[in-house]
Amino acid sequence: MHTLPLARSVVDPAAHRRGEPELLAELWADPETLVLVLHEGLLPLTDDGAHLDLRAPDELAGLGPGDGDAVWVFLGQCDERAYLAVLLADLPGDTSLEGVAADGGAAWLATVRRGRLRDVGHLLGDRDADLATTAVALAEWHARHPRCTRCGALTRPEQAGWVRRCPDDGTEDYPRTDAAVIMAVTDDAGRILLAHGAHWPPHRYSTLAGFVEPGESLETAVRREVAEEAGVVVDEVAYVASQPWPFPASLMLGFRARATTTDVVVDGKELTDARWFTREELSAALRAGEVLLPMRTSIALALIEEWFGGTLPASPLPSGR
Ligand SMILES: [Zn+2]
Q1: Nudix hydrolase domain location, by residue (predicted)?
Q2: Which of 122, 140, 229, 314 is placed for a possible disulfide with 5 were both Cys, Cβ 3.0 to 4.6 Å?
């Protein structure tokens, strides 16, 4: 399988530096540093949409570490340059983007082209896709985990944005990653099983997927999900590849799975349809507009294309649908 759009690890996280006491302030003062400013999960993009619009710290007056209540993150190093992220999603209370813009540093955000990672991740180069995936994952975590998991007090970021610590009892909370399996299920005739989710746009079909439950191996999770969602029995399960899917915190673990039964029974709640497709049937359904596949950034499309043996048209639908 080719490199997945959100799994291009070219930035050195340089994790050993996160504990340096003045790391964020030092890097902010370094004119070589580049900064990714994220607000409400939206990536600032160049006009052609193919690059992140990264900024030098001196262009971001009022947004530096210590200037407010945003979260600052050390993303890592690449080509001897350091990269930081400012996560404005964590603005407290009624502070608005306009309020920040009034300070000057974020004024450009109001006019710059912006996009969501799941829509544009495949268009970005290796460095930008890596920076964006890490920043979005950490932004989602900080936004959803403001309180101590032990006592409920508000926690504060430490370790250059990679830990949150409770001021009352010292508990350290680390970023969460939730394991999810996603599988290309095929039968002895070489057909693939694709399903339509109850809350998806019309005609969208994709591979089955689901979260790994406590006490499960990945292989068990694959077999359980296929049985629960489609009523199909699977025996052989083989790992293919993984990619982070930080919407908000998943790691998608891709598998091939071989079905030993072909009768399909959907639950009618999570899934409203599931069908077997030959390559010819899928091609015909795509041409007729009866089937729309997942978006280009997804591992789902990569798994389907691997089975198909060639490139297929990705869904043009915007994210969140
Ligand atoms: Zn606590």
Answers
A1: 175-299
A2: 122
Residue 69 lies in a domain: yes
Among 141, 173, 205, identify where a domain stops.
Answer: 173
The CA 24 to ligand 1 mean position distance, Å, reads: 25
Count up the domains in the chain and report the number.
2
Residues 241 and 208 in one domain: yes
Tell me: do 19 and 168 sit in the same domain: yes
Q: How far is the CA of 161 from the centre of ligand 1 (A)?
A: 18
CA of residue 173 to ligand 1 center, whole Å: 10
Rounded distance from Cα 93 to ligand 1 centre (Å)? 22
pLDDT per residue as tens digits for the range 77-103: 999 999 999 998 644 444 555 555 555
Is the pLDDT higher at 195 or at 321? Answer: 195
Lowest-pLDDT range, 199-203, 254-258, 316-320? 316-320
- Residue reference for tokens 């969501």: 116
Answer yes or no: do 133 and 195 share one domain: no
Do strands 172-173 and 163-165 pair parallel, antiparallel, or not at all (unpaired)? antiparallel
For residue 174, report the distance from its CA to the centre of ligand 1, in Å.
13
Q: Calculate how far, in angstroms, residue 145's C-alpha sits from the geometric centre of ligand 1.
A: 12
Counting every residue written for the chain, the total comes to 321
Tell me if 227 is assigned to some domain.
yes
Q: Is residue 4 part of a domain?
A: no
Span 296-307, mean pLDDT?
Answer: 97
Identify whether 8 is part of a domain. no
Q: Which two tokens stand for residue 243?
A: 């990619």
Average pLDDT over residues 94-123: 76
Question: Measured in angstroms, how far is the CA atom of residue 158 from the centroid of ligand 1?
Answer: 14
